[in-house]
UniProtKB/TrEMBL annotation:
GO molecular function, one term: O-phospho-L-serine:2-oxoglutarate aminotransferase activity
One Pfam family, short name: Aminotran_5
Protein name from the UniProt record: Phosphoserine aminotransferase
Function recorded in the entry: Catalyzes the reversible conversion of 3-phosphohydroxypyruvate to phosphoserine and of 3-hydroxy-2-oxo-4-phosphonooxybutanoate to phosphohydroxythreonine.
Length: 363
């Protein structure tokens, strides 16, 4: 029996996708072998790769002036790749300053890595209130000549999400690992978007990068080949053997998303799921959300119990009810429910019903 999985990542995958992969595991497309056992350069797998790219382009309305890359190393690999690819001499001179917004642990990791290769200007930080809000644009202290501007639209751990796209004069870079494909994106406002797959795209082991063409020639001298967007773009993301099974599964997720109505349908569903849970928490005197209302994530909902001594019992009973992976991140504590695209509305309804019952028994 399938249970409701609220894991922040690797996260729930659509059941229909898992069933299709199961059916095709030993005999993919009538070939008598698994998709994991064929050459990544075979016509059959190239077709899988090309369809996955086209479906992602369709879902996000990606302009032709952008490359879509399927890469190894996850989003963490792009923490290094972003400065390596953008601190170079694209306009005839190097720019070794980048603007970053600091909104939590993932932004912090990106900042720390970028500082290995150049200067980072933290234009704004929400550390003053324990990373419980997204800084307003009028508080930023931007550089005059930054190579790029980086932000994390959704912080998985802290449950903070921006409800706007920053307006900046340099290329805008976003780590969308936690909210990609959950709503329409104005891709044309970005220079580069990247996302680890294991939340809304597919299994862990692959990352997606969407890069504007004019940014492919700005890399620093000596960039590692495996981090070069241009190398990946020129080779169709196959400069080396890619994670073919993760790519194949991601493609199945893209097809499933199209069948559900695309990112517009996912945005409506995300709104319903998150509103149901937040509204219950706000009405409760037993649970509370640490995140300010204007910055609450639709994807990751942290919450705490009035008495933390009940945390262990809450988690144990939740698991007995088939509600899995609700423990908050070790750096934050409490609980966290991740409501990615593959988490159905019924899962949130079951969670709220359990929370209400637990409150009645312990409040």
């Amino acid at each position: 029996m399938r249970k409701f999985n609220f894991c922040a990542g690797p996260a729930a995958l659509p059941e229909a996708v898992l069933l299709q992969a199961q059916q095709e595991l030993l005999d993919w497309g009538g070939r008598g072998c698994s998709v994991m056992e064929v050459s990544h350069r075979s016509p059959e797998f190239v077709e899988v790769a090309e369809r996955a790219e086209q479906d992602l382009r369709d879902l996000l309305s990606i302009p032709h002036s952008y490359r879509v890359l399927f890469l190894q190393g996850g989003a963490t690999g792009q923490f290094s790749a972003v400065p390596w690819n953008l601190f170079g001499a694209g306009d005839g001179r190097e720019k070794r300053v980048a603007d970053y917004i600091h909104t939590g642990q993932w932004a912090d990791k990106a900042i720390r890595e970028a500082r290995r290769y150049g200067q980072v200007n933290v234009v704004a930080s929400s550390e003053d209130r324990n990373f419980t809000y997204a800084p307003a644009a009028d508080s930023w202290q931007q550089s005059k000549d930054a190579a790029y501007f980086h932000y994390t639209p959704n912080e998985t751990i802290g449950g903070v999400e921006f409800d706007y796209v920053p307006e900046v004069s340099c290329p805008l870079v976003a780590d969308m690992s936690s909210n990609i494909l959950s709503q329409p994106i104005p891709v044309e406002k970005f220079g580069m978007i990247y996302a680890g797959a294991q939340k809304n795209i597919g299994p862990s082991g692959i990352a997606v990068a969407i890069v504007r063409d004019d940014l492919l020639d700005r890399a620093m001298d000596g960039i590692p080949r495996s981090l070069s967007w241009k190398v990946a773009a020129d080779a169709g993301s196959m400069d080396n053997t890619p994670p073919t099974f993760a790519w194949y599964l991601s493609g199945l997720v893209f097809q499933w998303l199209k069948e559900q109505g695309g990112v517009e349908a996912m945005a409506k569903l995300a709104g319903r799921k998150s509103a149901l849970l937040y509204d219950f928490i706000d009405r409760s005197g037993f649970y509370s959300s640490p995140v300010e209302k204007g910055s609450r994530s639709r994807m990751n909902v942290p919450f705490v119990l009035a008495d933390e001594r009940l945390d262990k019992e809450f988690l144990q009973q939740a698991e007995e009810m088939g509600l899995l992976n609700l423990k908050g991140h070790r750096s934050v504590g409490g609980m966290r429910a991740s409501l990615y695209n593959a988490v159905p509305l019924q899962a949130v309804e079951a969670l709220v019903a359990f929370m209400a019952d637990f409150e009645q028994r312990h409040g």
